[in-house]
Amino acid sequence: MAAVGPGPVATREYVPGDAKETKTKVLESGASILQSFAPVNKIHQHLCAFHGYGHDMSRQVEAHHYCGHVNEDMRQCVIYDSDDANARLIGIEYIISEALFMGLPDEEKKLWHSHEYEVKSGILFCPGLPEMAEHAELAKVAKTYGKTFHFWQFDRGDALPLGPPQLMMSFTKDGQLHDKLAKDVEERYGVSFAAKKKKRADMKGPDLGIHSLADYWEKGKGFQTVVKEM
């Protein structure tokens, strides 16, 4: 078996393990017909965005969110490293309204990030969605807060999900997102973040402004999880 520790950036093609057997494929096909996938079928939205590690925002990754509404104030998302059929499931994000965020304890607020800049700058978008529909949906997202954990540090070369989950943050100002990462996505999807930014000038963030405890990494201190024997 190939090494699974840190190294050159691991690709999906080199995840350790044998190719799927015919028996496995047959069982999958049967299960897809006979079993209920109600929670998964509630996913209705694909958002492409970028995340940085809460303790080291220089480490940045592309993140494809597949989201479903729990209700009008909360949606939950599974995150993949791409929108390919063999994409790696790398994390989860919970997105809540300003009203729910304001009800959180102050220590909890420090684990959440705002979405206003992400949306208004154009770097968060809905691949393939018509512009009018995208604009209406993201105008809501601009007012929300998110809490994100990634389980698979593929950017450091991990071929499997290793170590504790990592708290992730989003970007809040121009110049923070790596140009190469942004341009690669723009070219791949045929979009212009600058053009989207102009068309989103009318959007507003949280009604009370972004809370001072959100995006806590901006204060020069970042939170991150560790494994501790109890």
Describe the structure.
The chain is an alpha+beta fold and 230 residues long. The chain has one domain. It contains eight helices and seven strands. It has a six-stranded antiparallel beta barrel. The chain is globular and about 55 Å long. Residues 1-8 have low confidence and may be disordered. It comes from Selaginella moellendorffii. Belongs to the OBAP family.
Order of helices and strands: HHEEEEHHEHHEEHH
Query: What is the terminal separation in angstroms?
Result: 32 Å
Low-confidence stretches: 1-8
Largest sheet: 6 strands, antiparallel, barrel
- The level of helicity is 25-40%
The helix-and-strand class reads: alpha+beta
Tell me the strand order in the biggest sheet.
Answer: 1-2-3-4-6-7
Shape: globular
Please tally the β strands and state the result. Answer: 7
Strand content: 15-25%
Number of domains: 1
Number of helices: 8
Please give the radius of gyration in angstroms: 18 Å
Mean pLDDT: 90
Family: Belongs to the OBAP family.
Protein name: DUF1264 domain-containing protein
InterPro entries: OBAP-like
Pfam families: DUF1264 (PF06884)
